Task: structure prediction
Amino acid sequence: MTGDKEKLKIAVAGKGGVGKTTIAGTLARLLARDGHSVIAVDADPSMNLKFVLGIKDNPKPVSELKDLIFERTNAYSGTGIYKLNPKVDDVIRRYGAEGPDGVTLLVMGTIEKGGSGCTCPENAFLRSLLRHILFKGNTVIMDMEAGIEHLGRGTAKGVDLLLAVVEPGMRSVETVGRIKTLGMDIGIKNVAAVMNKVTDSEMVKMIETKLNEMDIPLLAIIPHDQALINADIENKAPLDVGGDAVEHIKTIKEILIDCH
Ligand SMILES: Nc1ncnc2c1ncn2[C@@H]1O[C@H](COP(=O)(O)OP(=O)(O)O)[C@@H](O)[C@H]1O
Ligand SMILES: [Mg+2]
Result:
């Protein structure tokens, strides 16, 4: 691990099923192989980044650390007042899972919305933790849920690039348009797209046109690759299986480093 690498802070977003987790996890490991000190953040409630990283155990989601959250936010006081900037600097060391290539995985977990009871201390804690991670001297790859709800203004400023994944089909392109608007609103400076699961060049042209209209640069085109489906079936990390798609993700890693 070298400390002098340029730090990348990338959030990967897009419609469900487009390949966010596959790309985020593989990028995280490739950057770690290059000497980056990488924190991979699973910010999707489905919590499957560990499979793509090749981590076998089950890291505890931070949202489930109720006692710690209540203690740190001072929510036990019963006053309804809680701290917005709780201490979080030990959370990565204590609850991060070390994976292949030296990637550290942090699983954010889910916070139930609505119902009875305020989830404000949990939200304050997760936000504070994300801010801490993004402004620390690490490379950060965040695997987001379909939207970018986890990011607020304070965290968005720490993100260098919102990498939006699209697949052939107009719905995922529309999602990327919405993500871009939302991202810009909260202060994200750069949005770029990656096209994934591509089989047909006509479709590529259509999507390229749409992305152009939205002024979103297209960084790479990843083919549909049976090797990734096999990796999923065999419960192996895509990087440990290899294949065409993985080679394309390696190219994305090079582009990200060059553009940084
Ligand atoms: N280029 C590709 N070719 C074939 N299958 C892919 C490709 N990229 C991802 N997949 C498969 O698509 C499914 C959804 O991918 P995933 O990364 O979990 O998407 P998301 O995180 O956006 O929901 C997984 O089964 C994955 O193996
Ligand atoms: Mg996912």
